[in-house]
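ok so i was messing around last nite and threw this chain in just to see what happens. nothing serious, just curious
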Amino acid sequence: MKTTKTTSFIAPAILIAILLFACNSKTSTNDCERFKNGKFNIHFRSKQGDMFFTINRQDTIQTELEDKTGYTTKLRVHWTDNCNYETSLIESTFPFPDSVQEIRRTMVLKTEIISTGSNYYVFKAHRDNSNFITDTMWVAK
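result:
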């Protein structure tokens, strides 16, 4: 009798676990293609305050406009596969000292698209040995 009750509990639990795993599986590589070009928005929260960026990505160039200040950044984009890309700084109007700008030019930001929706993608990114950040990039309307 115990085995029947245990079996009747385990079978649904396994089914639920399989469904949860399937729902959380990695993004289809074809789904990332639609984010290689376009206009996007991101709301970045930091210790210095909230920043809102409008991003325009065309082929191998990405431009970022910080909406409040008007500062811009121009980046080179290199897609390493369908859902992974790297960006490196070309130029920026952010008022960083030259030494910081030079470090920014030499450090590549590696980004992985980890899930997608109809009007957004969730990514994780890092530079060299830094901590990963995870955020959402929204398709601009």
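not much to say yet. The chain has three helices and eight strands.
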